[in-house]
Amino acid sequence: MSRQAFVALVTCFNEDETINYKATRAQVRRQVEAGNNIMCAGTNGDFTALTFEEKVRLTEEVVDEVGRRTRVIVNAGMPATFETMKLAREFDRIGVDGIAVITPFFIACTQDGLVRHFSTVADAVRTPVYLYDIPARTQNHIEPQTARTLANHGNIAGIKDSGGAKETLEAYLQVSKEVDGFQVYSGPDHLVLWALQNGAAGCISGLGNAMPHVLAGILSAFNAGNVAEAERQQGVFAAFRTDLYALGFAPAMVKRALYLQDASVGASRQPALLPSDGQDARIATLLRQYGLL
What we know:
Elements: E1 4-8, H1 21-34, E2 37-40, H2 52-66, E3 72-75, H3 81-94, E4 98-102, H4 111-124, E5 129-133, H5 135-138, H6 144-151, E6 156-161, H7 166-178, E7 183-186, H8 192-197, E8 202-205, H9 212-223, H10 227-245, H11 250-261, H12 277-289
Parallel strand pairs: 1-2, 1-8, 2-3, 3-4, 4-5, 5-6, 6-7, 7-8
Helix pairs in contact: 1-2, 2-3, 3-4, 6-7, 9-10, 11-12
């Protein structure tokens, strides 16, 4: 099975904080040309700052720009099951390849509550649903046993693990070995190759916004059986991640690194963190160091 890389695409904004759909389409083309698939309206896409209507139009624009050249997954997750289901139905209508559903945030959920939430959404659409676990941001965690339960739902196709703990990723990978057709996608950029070597279907990367060809290179080398080249590319990717994330909140640093490469992506909607002039200078130095500027 050929493993696949998705980039958790940034959403581009104008100076007045309206969405810049033209610039977002340009970022889609950049990723497709590099060989990556697209995930939109995720953490790196400022999904919590987007309105319902904007998410629908954003998805329509991305799907139209991709034109079936690659796969598109979109995040429908919101705190309430009701709104998540409404969004998922819109994405189902548009015709995406997968619907990611981040765990509810702000509302504390039991594991039984998570099973009900994800099952209700998956029951409402024909498009395959992917669980999305990022407990540091949502304060709700999909336990491996809960993932195993949900993996047996006929329309839940896999999970994106953005927890950052290798132990949890290992547990999800074990579920994928036990339940046929349940796929695991790794979120942490330093674990891309390790996850592939241990059975992951691919990765969904935020850092790939700034380094699309290196991300694609890891996957293409791995799929070709060139382990040495995959390790080399992963080394570059992980080193850039360490250096960039040392400067501040990861999604903000990725967006700013991309902004310094192409100002048309704009800043994030407020109150998202805006790097200082000093941080910009350090990010620019890093970009030059890695041949990205």
